[in-house]
Amino acid sequence: MFAWIVTAVMVVGVVLAIRTAWKRQQQVRAADEARLRTMAQVSIAAMKKKQEAAKATPPVSAAPTREERECPFCAELILAKAKVCKHCGRDVEPLA
């Protein structure tokens, strides 16, 4: 008779421990899901803010084009107004 009581108490203890662990696991899972939802909302808000800022700023205009020509001595590109080639160091006639 005593063995039955001990066995029943042990079974009840195991069942209660399993239920407690299961409830704790559900609480942890719910907290993780809430944290992930919050992180997703923050990320989405940041992306929207970034997109709005990109729409608000005017596009950067292209830099003015440089007038270039080939050096008659080394065939590298230099500015049209250059007096000395930056590649070979020779004197060149600037174009008007």
Looking at this protein, list some descriptive labels.
96 residues; mainly alpha; two-stranded antiparallel sheet
Task: Indicate the structural class.
Answer: mainly alpha
Q: Using only CA atoms, what is the Rg? A: 39 Å
What is the count of DSSP helices, taking H or I runs of 4+ residues? 1
Q: Average the pLDDT over all residues and give the rounded result.
A: 91
Q: What general form does the structure show?
A: rod-shaped
Distance from N terminus to C terminus (CA atoms, Å) equals: 117 Å
Strand arrangement within the widest β-sheet reads: 1-2
Describe this structure in words.
- The chain is 57% helix and 6% strand.
- The protein is mainly alpha-helical.
- The protein folds into 2 domains: 2-61; 62-96, no CATH class.
- Strands 1-2 form a two-stranded antiparallel ribbon.
- The longest helix is centred in the N-terminal third of the chain and has 55 residues, at 2-56.
- The chain is rod-shaped and about 115 Å long.
- The N and C termini lie far apart (117 Å).
